[in-house]
Specification:
With 164 residues, this protein is of the alpha/beta class. It has 5 helices and 7 strands, in the order H-E-E-E-H-E-H-E-H-E-E-H. The strands form 2 sheets. A 5-stranded mixed β-sheet has the order 5-4-3-6-7, covered by helices on one side. Helix 2 links the parallel strand 3 and strand 4.
Length: 164
Amino acid sequence: MRQLLQLLFCLALMPAARAAMPDSGDIAPNLVGKTLSGERVEMAAYKGKVVVVSFWATWCPYCLKELPVLENIQKLAGADKLQVIAVNTEERQVFRRAESMLKMLTLKLAYDPDKTIAASYGVRGIPHMLIIGRDGKIIRVYRGYDESSLDAIAADLNDAIDAE
């Protein structure tokens, strides 16, 4: 029950997005986020790889549990096949502290403080994850998920990685 309440709290605090919600089969928007140095993180840089884009926030307990799991998935699959991009949706100072605490992770950390990128990805709540195929098309979107979705997420990732 406590996890459900935390998830509902996370969802309630995320502002509603006004953009259309991309879905399976759509081409993922190119811009995914920015680094602290201002570098744009773009899908085009990962062409030919499966990409997991996870929108998260430090106030979302499930999101914080998920980041090391995504890190391990990327390591197991291999960086030549899978890239995880974790996009923080908070202000720069919060992202800076979070990035410092997560510096041991090899997944790509980016942020989107004004939530315009999140809106282009149809984010209306946290956590929000997209699995994007090697061709840049969205395979699956997971919105407001939890541990009960892990088998489906793993199956989608395995299918995407195995696809030629």
